[in-house]
Amino acid sequence: MVRDFNGYRISIYSPNDHFAVLTGPGSNAVIDFRENQPRSTVVEGAAVCLDRAEKLIKTLS
């Protein structure tokens, strides 16, 4: 799942759980949030991870 939000690109990966990889506007470089990387469990679903990533982007803007 890939989505653009406020110029950022959010990619959701789901190997065992869901985690978001964010790239900044006009860049292909991944932003490293370390322990703040948006995640969700399989039970919560990918949509929850996407919501968390969008909230994180709002704090950056």
- Give the strand content: 25-35%
Number of helices: 1
The radius of gyration is: 11 Å
Helix content: 10-25%
Structural shape: globular
Average pLDDT level: 94
H/E topology pattern: EEEEH
Query: Going across the major beta sheet, what is the strand order?
Result: 1-2-3-4
Distance between the termini: 22 Å
Q: Spans with pLDDT under 50 lasting ≥5 residues?
A: none
Q: Summarize the main sheet.
A: 4 strands, antiparallel
Q: What is the number of strand segments?
A: 4
- Output the structural class: alpha+beta
Summarize the model shown.
The chain has 61 residues and is α+β, with helices and mostly antiparallel strands. The protein has one helix at residues 46-60, and strands spanning 2-5, 8-13, 18-23, 39-40.
Structural features, described:
There is one protein chain. Helices cover 25% and strands 30% of the residues. With 61 residues, the chain is of the alpha+beta class. It has a four-stranded antiparallel sheet, covered by helices on one side. The longest helix is centred in the last third of the chain and has 15 residues, at 46-60. The model has no long low-confidence stretch (mean pLDDT 94).
